[in-house]
Specification:
Elements (H helix, E strand, L loop, with lengths): L6 E3 L3 H13 L12 E3 L5 E3 H11 L10 E2 L6 E2 L19 H10 L4 E3 L2 H5 L9 E3 L4 E3 L1 H11 L6 E2 L2 H14 L11 E3 L4 E3 L1 H7 L6 E3 H9 L2 H101 L2 H28 L1 E8 L17 E8 L16 E8 L11 E7 L3 E6 L4 E6 L4 E6 L4 E8 L2 E6 L4 E8 L2 E9 L10 E4 L2 E5 L3 E6 L6 E5 L4 E7 L4 E6 L7 E7 L2 E7 L6 E6 L5 E5 L4 E5 L6 E5 L8 E7 L2 E6 L6 E7 L1
Antiparallel strand pairs: 1-6, 2-3, 4-5, 7-8, 7-9, 10-11, 10-12, 13-14, 15-38, 16-17, 17-18, 18-19, 20-21, 21-22, 22-23, 24-25, 25-26, 26-27, 28-29, 29-30, 30-31, 32-33, 33-34, 34-35, 36-37, 37-38
Length: 669
């Protein structure tokens, strides 16, 4: 109970309207909460001190060292702190406190109660709210009691109007007159240079050098003539613009809402169509998988039946031969012999046929696993059925007749000149690796290139030095001689890529290194006059043998370590091929059927293949040189063969002629 009258909890429409306006004015534009420790900028927009400090730091985060001002979060007006050298986190503290807002917040905390008129209360009317306060009488009056009671007795006293709307306006009026938040002094001056109100202390301390400083009243009179009306007109236009923008945003939101509904319906419809389409795709892939399996199964069944029929026939011949021998049947024995010969030839023919047509087939379903991830941007196919086929090597025991009894048949001619080449190719070295990989040394373009046996170019690396011979170290590594640098360069061949692994300098070699081969962690290198042994990790070369002419290529029998050197000479009776074994050299072939021998290699059975550059042929000889036969001649299109590599039943040969841009791939059949 207050001394002026009875206090009762209630609200009114006027009070609610006043409170709504005040609450809106006391809301921080940044956090949208009621102002806490409100700070006012020169543009008179107020913010929570903490919100303003965070905003200043975030806005100037890109240029913390050089920023000297910031823009108001509401009107974007450029604002400078009083002390720019202060820490930016403390700039907000430099701006004046909005005391009007502080008092209004304190006032609004008590607006939920009403003070009753004291005279009416004494008359028994306890629900009549007071509208005036008399400081002299220390009492509250309603409007009727003020006129009928107070004004009759105290005509020289003017009570204060305490209605909520008037009280709020009174607080604002008082604060506008005494609102310097920095010095708690009356705001009497206006600095036009900084566009800010200030008390006399502000003007003396902060604006003494400013040129346009007037009294607040003078500046008010100056702007009241036309500028206020112009400003109000612009404000009305701005309000109209904001209303239009708000309406536009609401229309966009409505449109987005409608789009969302349409999109959801479309998703449901698409899901139904996708399910139907996936059913079709699944059936197509299932049919393809079944058809592919059926086709390959039929081919295998045909091959098996051919083998079975021939096997049963030969088994019958073997059984009959025993009976014929026991009966000493001359005619029967001869017939069996002839039939057996025909069956052996048929067996060889069938094996050769299967060797050419045999292929390994894998049938699998493959899809992109990304379609199972939630954030994938890929489409949603069901994948595809891959039928992968490659040439299949028959079991070794099937082909029981020796390589020395077979012939070379060309299977492919591969163009090794690529778009990046400046010149026609000059191939001095070539190596055939498993999986149909062919490593080619193109000396003219200073490149090592990688091809497949199907003729597909995969990659290349540049080697600036001159190089000559190539050899196989293992199934994924080759070595090449850099002749003038007297260096061995090792190259890795993996995943259809080429990578230089190392360069091994041969320390005491005085001549250019030409040919190279490898066995048991040791290289054998040839020059114009000698053959040398070089450790795998480099070091000094050990001379093995003097030769009469230059050796361009070397080869090694991996079964026993025998090294074969081709000697480039056409002199009659000169040595064409020499063999090194356990420190002993043996001349195994003289110039005759071949002249100016170049490329040389050894197959798995120890047969040696030699290119006759100027005799335009390729010969095969036994490791001891006793059996020699021509495999290819100029009639087969061989012209000046240079390098050769043998792997299993496959042979690749390069040419030093008009065919220099091609590599020929052969099969031993």
């Amino acid at each position: 109970m207050a001394e002026g009258g009875f206090v009762q909890d209630q609200t009114s429409d006027n009070l609610l309207g006043s409170q709504s306006l005040d609450i809106l004015m006391l809301e921080c534009p940044i956090c949208l909460e009621q102002l806490r420790y409100p700070k006012s900028l020169p543009c008179l927009h107020s913010f929570c001190k903490e919100c303003l400090a965070s905003y200043i730091v975030n806005e100037s985060s890109g240029n913390m060292a050089s920023a000297s001002s910031f823009s108001c979060p509401v009107c974007r007006r450029d604002t400078e702190p009083l002390n720019q050298s202060d820490d930016k986190q403390r700039w907000a503290e430099q701006f004046p406190t909005n005391n009007l807002a502080v008092e209004m917040m304190q006032h609004l905390q008590n607006t939920s109660t009403l003070i009753m008129c004291k005279p009416c209360e004494k008359k028994g009317n306890v629900n009549i709210p007071a509208m005036f306060w008399c400081e002299h009488n220390k009492s509250y009056f309603c409007e009727s009691c003020k006129v009928g009671f107070h004004d009759l007795i105290h005509d020289d006293c003017e009570p204060e109007n305490i209605t909520e709307r008037n009280k709020s306006a009174t607080i604002r009026r008082k604060m506008s007159a005494t609102g310097c938040g920095k010095h708690q002094e009356k705001l009497e001056y206006y600095c036009e240079d900084h566009q800010i109100l200030g008390c006399h202390k502000c003007i003396i301390v902060d604006h003494r050098k400013c040129e346009a400083v007037t009294s607040a009243d003078d500046f008010r009179d100056k702007i009241q003539t036309t500028k206020i009306e112009d400003l109000l007109g612009e404000l009305r236009k701005c309000v109209n613009s904001m209303e239009i923008l708000i309406k536009d945003v609401e229309e966009q939101l409505q449109s987005m809402t409608e789009d969302q509904v349409t999109a959801l319906e479309s998703l449901i419809d698409l899901r139904t169509k996708i399910n139907e389409r996936f059913d079709v795709l699944q059936k197509e892939l299932t049919d393809k998988l079944t058809a592919s399996f059926k086709e390959e199964k039929e081919n295998l069944d045909i091959s098996r039946k051919k083998c079975e029929r021939l096997m049963f026939a030969m088994q019958k011949t073997l059984t009959s031969s025993q009976d014929a021998a026991l009966k000493e049947d001359t005619v029967g024995t001869i017939s069996l012999f002839q039939r057996g010969q025909a069956e052996v030839e048929s067996c060889k023919g069938l094996i050769q046929e299967l060797e050419k047509s045999s292929r390994s087939t894998s049938v699998r379903h493959e899809y992109n696993p990304d379609i199972l991830t939630l954030d994938t941007k890929t489409s949603l196919p069901l994948g595809k059925i891959l039928v992968h086929q490659q040439q299949r090597k028959l079991p070794t025991a099937v082909v029981w007749w020796a390589l020395s009894n077979r012939q070379l048949k060309i299977t492919r001619k591969i163009n090794i000149k690529v778009l990046t080449d400046d010149k026609d190719c000059t191939v001095y070295g070539i190596v055939l690796l498993s999986g149909g990989r062919i490593v080619v040394g193109d000396n003219a373009n200073h490149k090592v290139k990688l091809f497949t046996e199907n003729g597909d170019f995969k990659c290349e690396i540049e080697i600036s030095e001159e190089f000559c011979d190539f050899c196989r170290i293992d199934d994924n590594t080759v070595a090449v001689t850099l002749d003038e640098d007297k260096t061995l360069c090792t190259v890795n061949v993996r995943d259809l890529t080429l990578t230089v692994l190392s360069k091994i300098k041969i320390q005491n070699l005085t001549e250019n290194c030409l040919g190279v081969t490898y066995n048991n962690n040791t290289f054998v290198v040839s020059t114009v006059t000698s053959l040398y042994s070089v450790p795998q990790n480099g070091g000094k070369a050990t001379m093995l043998h003097n030769i009469e002419s230059k050796c361009l290529h070397l080869a090694c029998d991996q079964r026993n370590g025998r090294v074969f050197a081709s000697i480039y000479t056409s002199d009659p009776d000169a040595v064409a091929v020499t063999r090194l074994c356990d420190g002993i050299h043996t001349d195994v072939l003289k110039v005759g059927v071949v002249k100016d021998t170049t490329g040389i290699d050894v197959d798995r059975e120890g047969n040696v293949y030699i290119c006759g550059c100027n005799s335009h042929n390729v010969i095969q000889m036994s490791g001891d040189g006793t059996n020699v036969r021509e495999l290819l001649t100029s009639a087969d299109g061989i012209e000046r063969p240079r390098a050769i590599s043998v792997l299993g039943e496959k042979v690749v040969i390069t040419n030093k002629s008009k065919q220099r841009n091609f590599v020929h791939l052969f099969q031993l059949v």
